[in-house]
């Protein structure tokens, strides 16, 4: 709330504005999915605010960013396996570790 404002007065002002706030209890996890990865909020505070027919969702907490897995084409796996003389499983693992960089994966496996 706003510092120095009586909570009871704040509720009255919100009611006059047609504003309603609701805190969702027992939130364990909130995940925001993006193309590059996910923002994960553990033990987040989740508040739903409705004002003049518009609903807004607010998440408070500290997010942890989890990068998305890189999709590795089968052709890349076969090429790296062939060039580095390793199994396709080893090639796939090296490609994942190098975020799909073929040259870097081959160099890594050739060390």
TrEMBL record:
GO terms of molecular function: RNA binding
**Which InterPro entries did the record assign?**
NAC_A/B_dom_sf (IPR038187), NAC_arc (IPR005231), Nas_poly-pep-assoc_cplx_dom (IPR002715), UBA-like_sf (IPR009060)
Keyword vocabulary terms for this entry: Protein transport, RNA-binding, Transport
This chain's source organism reads Methanomicrobium antiquum
Q: How does it assemble?
A: Homodimer. Interacts with the ribosome. Binds ribosomal RNA.
Q: Which gene encodes it?
A: nac
The record's annotation in CDD domains points to:
UBA_AeNAC
Entry's family note:
Belongs to the NAC-alpha family.
Indicate what this protein is called per its UniProt record.
Nascent polypeptide-associated complex protein
One BP annotation, GO? protein transport
Its biological purpose: Contacts the emerging nascent chain on the ribosome.
Which HAMAP family did the record assign?
A: NAC_arch
Superkingdom of the source species: Archaea
| Upper classification of the organism | Archaea, Methanobacteriati, Methanobacteriota, Stenosarchaea group, Methanomicrobia
Q: What sequence ranges are listed for the domain NAC-A/B?
A: 4-72
